[in-house]
Amino acid sequence: MTQTTVLAPAVRRDPPHPDTLVPYQRARRDRIVGAALELMLGRTYDALQMKDVALAADVALGTIYRYFRSKDHLCAEALLRWSERFARETTGRPGPSGERLKVAFRRAARAFERNPSVLSYLTALQSTGDPLAAELYEHFASRQREAFATYVPRVASPRREKIVMVMSAVLDAALRDFTRGRKPISSVYSAIDDAADLVVG
Domain of 178? Predict the structure, then answer.
């Protein structure tokens, strides 16, 4: 009687933390993230292939998996880098809270108007099964909430955070209709203005 050997499934180890990388490794990792981001701005989540990222970054496909556990992990890192551009643009300015909110969320809407494919990555990462990607996505979401909150500093917590949550939900729903071709971009801006008037007055 012969015995059948059952092999345990391979376990993918977590990649090294960026802070532990030597300079040339960090530069290579940054190049991969930059290449992924540029591709993400022009194609949807489903259309993005890791082999295309490898080609754009001029690395082997296996090299990407040395630094990133999965496609979601890489996309979350690239999304976080994309949000840095938005964070640099969003600085609270004087004026009524309602008008300040409109400025902040209109800027966010313009970012998605220029790069509508990014919304598909948000949708995918909201339900990712990769814990590293989920952690990065939460960092991204937290950064966005904090940026928006700077526009209503005179509103006390927890009302300020609730206002940002409601406005973010309105923006998300309006953008989904826009990217699906159901409504024009003008409806996104109208929804932002109406919501700001309602929640702040």
Answer: 92-199
